[in-house]
Amino acid sequence: MGKYIKKCKIYKNTCIKNYNNGTMNMVKDMQYKITTYSEDETMELAQNIESEKFPNMVICLEGDLGSGKTVFAKAFALALGITDNITSPTYNIIKEYDNAEMKLFHMDVYRLNDIKQDLGIPEYFNKKGVCIIEWADLIEDILPKNRLDIKIRILGEETRQFIIIPHGSKYEDLCERVL
Ligand SMILES: Nc1ncnc2c1ncn2[C@@H]1O[C@H](COP(=O)(O)OP(=O)(O)OP(=O)(O)O)[C@@H](O)[C@H]1O
Ligand SMILES: [Mg+2]
Predict the structure, then answer these.
(1) CA 48 to CA 20: how far, in whole Å?
(2) What percent of the chain shows pLDDT beyond 70?
(3) Which alpha helices (DSSP H) does 31-168 contain, by range?
(4) How close is the Cα of 22 to the center of ligand 1, in Å?
(5) With the C-alpha atoms ordered 11, 175, 71, 43, is the resulting torsion angle positive or negative?
(6) H/E element holding 174?
(7) Would you list the domain boundaries of the chain?
(8) What is the distance between the alpha carbons of residues 100 and 85, in angstroms, rounded to a whole number?
């Protein structure tokens, strides 16, 4: 598979690890802050994360309109080897791509409330593909416990801050490897 640059070098990368040493067990709370200064840098970040993909991976994107959620999803899809034209699933909610290394379920749940039927979203978390969910914060109650949360803040016309929070050891390991 044609792969892009695997290591982030260009990002300002701050890793904050907070250890709350409770009486019974240790709670590890890890988050990464990465700033990108162009669409290309955001694409590179997505490609780096793609290089550590695994079946049933769930990536939850949060961020205002135009923050870069679809840019991230498209770059991930491209790195996965998806050759179809990847379009935003705003109106269909879920788009499925099945012609690459691994299936990709690209969701945009912004308009989910307008749709009357139950789309069975939780089933997609176990279909051995990767799920990328735009506006995931709107369906927080049905998200799996183990997942990668990515919050995007618009800092300027071409500047975006990514706050990446891994939930579960698989996602923590992934972040340690590629961020
Ligand atoms: N650093 C950057 N990272 C990502 N996108 C950027 C960056 N700088 C500028 N952009 C631009 O911001 C826009 C992001 O659009 P995108 O469709 O990805 O947003 P979105 O978060 O999916 O919005 P929506 O909620 O409407 O789906 C694009 O036009 C892109 O070119
Ligand atoms: Mg979008």
Answers:
(1) 29
(2) 83
(3) 39-50, 69-80, 121-124
(4) 40
(5) positive
(6) helix 169-178
(7) 12-178
(8) 13
- Classified by CATH at the fold level, domain 12-178 comes out as Rossmann fold (3.40.50)
How remote is the CA of residue 88 from the centroid of ligand 2, in Å? Answer: 6
133 Cα–ligand 1 center, Å:
15
Closest CA to 85 of 21, 120, 93, 95: 95
Q: Which ligand is nearest to the CA of 135?
A: 1
Protein residue closest via CA to atom 18 of ligand 1: 68
Handedness of CA 127, 148, 102, 89 (dihedral sign): positive
pTM for this structure?
Answer: 0.89
Q: How far apart are CA 70 and CA 47, in angstroms?
A: 13
Beta bridge partners of 14: 33
Average pLDDT over residues 111-132: 90
What are 41-52's pLDDT values in tens digits? 999 999 999 999
124: phi then psi, degrees, rounded to nearest 5: -70, -20
**Separation between Cα atoms, residue 10 and residue 74, nearest integer Å:** 20
pLDDT tens readout for residues 40-95: 999 999 999 999 999 999 999 999 999 999 999 999 999 999 988 888 887 889 99
